[in-house]
Amino acid sequence: MNHFPIFVAVEGRRIVLSGGGDAALAKLRLILKTTAHVTVFAPTPAPEIEAWAVEGILRLVRRPMQPGDALCAALFYAADENENEDARTSAIARADGALVNIVDNLQDSQFITPAIVDRDPVTVAIGTEGAAPVLARAIKADLEAKLPATLGTLARIGKSFRKAADALPFGRPRRDFWADYYFNAGPAAISSGEEAVGPALDSLLVDHLSRKERPGHVAFVGAGPGDPELLTLKARKLLDEADVVIHDRLIAAPILELVRREATLLDAGKEGFGPSMSQSDINALMVEHAARGAQVVRLKSGDPTVFGRLDEEIDAVGEAGIGYTIVPGITAASAAVASIGQSLTKRERNSSVRFLTGHDMKGFADHDWAALARPGEVAAIYMGKKSARFIQGRLIMHGADRATPVTIVENASRPDQRILTTTLAHLAEDIAAAQLSGPALTFYGLAPRAAEAAMNETIKQELA
Ligand code: SAH
């Protein structure tokens, strides 16, 4: 982000513009929406500018700019559409202490003007740092269509009601009230006229004042494998409402971006079974916040019920007498298998699939290895990077075919996804050589569909 978006207070301050042609007009149409004092310097102003001057909504000075003309100005626009004149006027304005924008000259501008969706006092500013004006216009058109014209009115009336709404306790009760106003009661009332909004706010407040506060709660939410579009609608909603979000390290940054801005974001640091906050610390953290009435989201990668130590966390929350819900997510095996164009189960190949963790192999009984070593078996191995050699050894020892396909999907569903194809015989050396740094899921007994098709073709040719 080379440009940081902010909203500048311009009420009662000066905005100065040099220029009298089309570029000046385009900027003035925006600037005149503000409550700033606008001054235009133009020896030959367009008729519209003359008219605005006559109406008294801007001050027109019919001469080129001179030093001191932009004194005390908050912002300055160089809009003469002439390189030399723009350079001259912007130097004056800079010396006078104004922030400078030169029309169509990103390089020398100190700020840029975004595309604006105006539902005053609600304004949406869209910027692309000059990279894609077409995109900015498309987004603007989209928002113009989406945001009802009455939104500004609702916000204005809402603003005048803020003091009254302070009767509600700070935090969630107040937030719930406003959400109810903007998304339900407000739009319903305004459809029968602006004057219906005030009374609607009054009765909404009475209703909310009589409500009991929601008790603290913990939602164990699956964040999926990393692609934010693979979140469930429930997960999105909970992230939007959470007071506290306690997340594992594996949660991808674009998903954390979706957390409500005011929520407390806590990194529990768990990555597989790697270095982390201790399980009892995490339990204590959830309980502590929920006991204080917070809506806690315990955000876990993939599906919370798969290798997530979910039961320990549920026990802790349950013992503290705190309510909880579980929101399933897309587990890494589902995302990884999709990326290789295969199914986890397939008629006449495997009617069952095992989810194993490579981390704790000591608990995996010998007869399980024997079963897995039979032809056609499929397993999804989580946290299997370090234990690749052990798994390979056990399977071969129990008679598995060394040519059994093995596919490793690193960063499934993420932009940096990588697919590594190998066989049981070469699993350990290939995994080491690949130097995987992200989370990786190992499929035993599955090759990517394309590779499988190619292999079948070779076999057919050899047989022919
Ligand atoms: N509950 C999670 C698993 C947690 S254990 C789930 O349902 O997916 C952590 C392991 O999950 C990692 O070591 C890795 O094997 C796997 N994993 C998680 N996200 C992954 C991803 N995007 N790509 C590949 N494997 C992933």
TrEMBL record:
Key word Lyase present in the record?
yes
Keyword set for this entry?
Answer: Cobalamin biosynthesis, Lyase, Methyltransferase, Multifunctional enzyme, NAD, Oxidoreductase, Porphyrin biosynthesis, S-adenosyl-L-methionine, Transferase
Give the active-site positions.
Answer: D248, K270
Query: Which pathway does it operate in?
Result: Porphyrin-containing compound metabolism; siroheme biosynthesis; precorrin-2 from uroporphyrinogen III: step 1/1; Porphyrin-containing compound metabolism; siroheme biosynthesis; sirohydrochlorin from precorrin-2: step 1/1
Which residue intervals define the domain Tetrapyrrole methylase in the entry? Answer: 218-427
* InterPro entries tied to this protein: 4pyrrol_Mease, 4pyrrol_Methylase_sf, 4pyrrole_Mease_sub1, 4pyrrole_Mease_sub2, CobA/CysG_C, NAD(P)-bd_dom_sf, Siro_Cobalamin_biosynth, Sirohaem_synth
Any one Gene Ontology molecular-function term assigned to this protein's record: uroporphyrin-III C-methyltransferase activity
Query: Could you tell me which SUPFAM superfamilies the record lists for this protein?
Result: NAD(P)-binding Rossmann-fold domains, Siroheme synthase middle domains-like, Tetrapyrrole methylase
Q: Where are the transmembrane segments?
A: none
Q: Which Pfam families match?
A: CysG_dimeriser, NAD_binding_7, TP_methylase
Annotated ranges, domain Sirohaem synthase dimerisation: 151-196
Q: Which domain of life does the UniProt lineage start with?
A: Bacteria
Substrates-to-products reaction catalysed:
precorrin-2 + NAD(+) = sirohydrochlorin + NADH + 2 H(+)
One biological process term from GO is: methylation
Family listed: Belongs to the precorrin methyltransferase family.
Name of protein: Uroporphyrinogen-III C-methyltransferase
Source organism per entry reads Poseidonocella pacifica
